[in-house]
Design brief:
By secondary structure, this protein is mainly alpha-helical. The chain is built from 22 helices and no strands. One of its GO terms (biological process) is cell adhesion.
Length: 763
């Protein structure tokens, strides 16, 4: 569905002024949307000047400065757009048209606002913003539409980069599949590693830029598959080269290549928003989402007795109860839970029958008694659905907790490794059967958890976990069979270790997922964004020797536990502050939520849990956290341009503090550390500096919220924006890296120019 670029907060007033971008342009990323927000807002302010009854010389001069500033800004913006067109010939025609339209609109606005030198700006002898009201609205609409087109076209270049990077990876994968010698494999895999790192960074940036949380979660899942499969591809391919006639080794390797291709395809589907053969994605409906929608419809009867039919309501309940059969038919649901779910399903049908009966009567005769009976029926129906929701949640999470506790010792994996090295094919066959049983249990657990996950991103994480167990189980079996056939093979042993580690890692992630599902159910964290650490450059190096991951031991975890707990408490405080904001799409809130989520991941690391597995993961996350803090500081500077003079110094002081802290954290995270003691000191310093930034964030959020509310109240809260800042404009290309020149002319460079389109607010 197309989304208007004006639909985000801060620009909704544009519709009342007749502004609107091309309805055919869909804004899918935050960078494009956030670039348009100030433009739409400020153009609307300019339009509103025409309705002011009194016009002093100061006001006329201000309006003229605004018009000139807009024209200059558009000129610089168009220069960047034209550079993009020259670099990308397939977009040249579209981009050129959009640039011409933008330039024309900018010149028109400059002409219409050329009023300061006129004695009578209202005179019909000279067409101005005051005499041609329709003309300025048309020019503003054309400007907004053309700028949006330029931004969306620039975004296509980012998509093109990802597709090109994917194609490189696929081409190199085809070469890897066909190699027959170790020397050739080493050379090609070195190239493959570099291409995968580049692809990981491009898709990581895209993931964090996506507006749709569901797509963001799908992207995270696909990228996680690719990261884990890269090491699997290495060991599986080496095993196949060492044992070319081994059928189980070939099956093992083919499985890895197939899974990587599927993950690469899914990434492209997400970034291009398309599916093969034009088929639409059919997302499975969970019990939670079904109950939520059903309750909304039932409670809607209070306002309108005629907005839906009783058949619709009955059908919705039938679908929910069909899904509860996933629990009642499961061999792993306890007898007690099964009986309770069946009883509540029966009760839900009875409550709906009673509700429908009273509802039909109320449609015919709206008496006080009937309306009271209807209210009671609505409450009883909703209460029954809440109890059903609680029961299926208890059934799924208790099963998950029991299974994860039972399999925490990894006895089957250990047995497979031992019997494989012994070459005991009969014992390996016995333990592969046990692993298959374990896989079925874990797959069923994931299916049930998906029904109670509570948010779409967590639903997708459950689906990803289910797929991982489904695929990794057979891969472990083929790796174990290969080792049993070649018990003295070091590479076959290493290969089995890699697949077992992937299984153990997924089990560890399930513990975190279970905790997050419980947090959502209990209302502790809500729809929290998850920031996965990006793969590090050099992880897959040419010599193919896997770097040993560095983890904190129990003694180090104990030392850092207090600091981690403080960080956890601060994330809760920041979450509480962001929830107070009316506008959840505000840039300051977005950055604050992102920083809180990353800080929470760092807290989990201090406990030996979560997605950050090694100290290198932590340091990389700290760098991303610091970058997000710097972006927040930029948003604070933008806010300071709008507040009164007496409010500005404090806000700027806090922004400078934040920048300094983030620079210090970034320097600490990038500093080298050799040895166990130095590494722990660096970990401690990163957590400490992150805590300090979060402490400052707890102070900044309420301050900004207060200032924005003050501004919203109006009556002189906003000050005129500063004159145009020429020195902030930077364009150019890097001659030493021609293949990356297009990045200079991407969304970010265009964003710099639009950000400077700051117009004057009337006092």
């Amino acid at each position: 569905m197309a989304t208007s670029p004006c639909s985000s907060s801060g620009v909704s007033s544009s519709s009342s002024s007749g502004l609107g971008a091309d309805a055919g342009l869909e804004i899918r990323t935050r960078s494009v949307e956030q670039t348009l927000v100030p433009l739409v807002s400020q153009i609307t302010t300019l339009i509103n000047h025409k309705d002011k009854p009194k016009r002093s010389d100061k006001t006329l001069q201000a309006i003229q400065r605004v018009g000139q500033a807009v024209n200059l800004a558009v000129g610089r913006f168009v220069t960047v757009g034209e550079a993009i067109a020259n670099e990308n010939h397939e977009l040249k025609e579209e981009m050129s048209v959009a640039c011409i339209e933008a330039r024309r609109a900018g010149e028109t606005i400059a002409q219409l606002t050329d009023v300061a030198s006129l004695d009578h700006p209202e005179s019909d002898s000279h067409i101005t913003i005051f005499t041609d009201k329709t003309g300025v609205v048309k020019a503003a609409r054309l400007l907004l539409s053309s700028v949006t087109k330029v931004l969306v076209l620039a975004d296509r270049i980012v998509i093109k980069q990802i597709i090109t990077s994917r194609n490189k990876v696929l081409a190199t994968m085809e070469q890897l599949e066909k190699v027959s010698s170790f020397q050739e494999f080493v050379q090609i895999f070195s190239q493959f590693g570099n291409e995968m790192v580049e692809f990981a960074h491009l898709t990581g940036d895209r993931q964090n830029d996506l507006k749709d949380e569901k797509k963001k979660a799908r992207m995270a899942a696909s990228r996680a598959v690719l990261e884990k499969c890269t090491m699997m591809l290495l060991t599986a391919s080496k095993t196949c080269l060492r044992h070319p006639d081994c059928e189980s080794a070939r099956i093992n390797k083919d499985g890895v290549f197939h899974r990587m291709r599927l993950a690469l395809e899914q990434v492209i589907e997400i970034v291009t928003d398309s599916r093969p053969n034009g088929e639409s994605e059919m997302a499975p409906i969970s019990i939670y989402s079904g109950i939520k929608e059903f309750k909304n419809k039932v409670e809607g009867l209070r306002e309108n007795l005629y907005f839906l039919s009783k058949e619709n309501l009955s059908t919705m309940l039938e679908v929910i109860l069909e899904h509860t059969e996933d629990f009642t038919d499961s061999a792993y649901t306890s007898h007690e839970h099964r009986e309770h779910i069946l009883e509540l399903s029966k009760q839900a049908k009875m409550e709906l029958e009673q509700l429908v009966s009273v509802w039909m009567q109320a449609q015919n005769q709206k008496t006080k008694d009937l309306m009271e009976d209807l209210e009671v029926a609505i409450l009883k129906t909703c209460q029954c659905m809440n109890e059903l929701k609680r029961e299926v949640h208890s059934a799924a999470t208790s099963l998950a907790a029991d299974l994860l506790k039972y399999h925490t010792d990894h006895m089957v994996l250990k047995a497979l490794k031992i019997t494989g090295v012994e070459g005991n094919l009969e014992a390996v066959a016995e333990y592969t059967c046990k692993l298959s049983e374990q896989k079925e249990q874990l797959v069923e657990m994931c299916r049930l958890l998906r029904h109670v996950s509570g948010t779409e991103p967590l639903e997708i994480t459950c689906i990803h976990a289910e797929d991982t167990f489904q695929v990794t189980g057979p891969q472990i079996i083929s790796a174990a069979e290969t080792l049993a056939l070649h018990p003295s093979s070091k590479i076959a042993k290493e290969n089995l270790e890699v697949f077992c580690e992937a299984w153990e890692s997924q089990l560890s992630d399930m513990s975190l997922l279970l905790r997050e599902i419980n947090d959502v159910f209990e209302g502790r964290r809500g729809e929290k964004r998850v920031y996965l650490s990006l793969p590090r450059p050099g992880k897959h190096n040419a010599n193919l020797k896997a770097l040993k991951p560095v983890k904190l031991d129990s003694e180090e975890q104990a030392k850092i536990a207090k600091l981690g707990l403080e960080l956890h408490l601060l994330t809760s405080d920041v979450d509480s502050e962001t929830e107070k904001w009316e506008d959840q799409e505000n840039e300051i809130v977005q950055h604050g939520q992102g920083m809180s989520s990353m800080a929470y991941s760092m807290y989990l690391f201090t406990r030996g849990e979560g997605l950050l597995k090694t100290t290198q993961d932590l340091f990389h996350q700290a760098e991303i956290f610091a970058t997000e803090g710097t972006k927040l500081a930029s948003a604070l500077h933008a806010l300071s341009d709008q507040v009164r003079d007496d409010d500005k110094p404090l806000l700027l002081l806090e922004a400078e503090k934040l920048i300094t802290m983030c620079k210090q954290l970034q320097a600490t995270a990038k500093a080298s550390a050799q040895g166990k003691s130095a590494t722990f000191t660096k970990v401690d310093a990163c957590i400490l500096k992150t805590r300090n930034v979060m402490t400052l964030l707890c102070q900044l959020l309420p301050l900004c919220c207060k200032l924005l509310r003050k501004n919203k109240a109006g009556n002189g809260c906003l000050k005129p924006a500063p004159p145009w800042k020429e020195d902030r404009i930077r364009t150019g290309t890097n001659a030493r890296t021609p293949e990356r020149r297009v990045e200079t002319f991407g969304i970010k460079s265009l964003e710099n120019h639009v950000t400077n389109m700051t117009f004057l607010e009337s006092k």
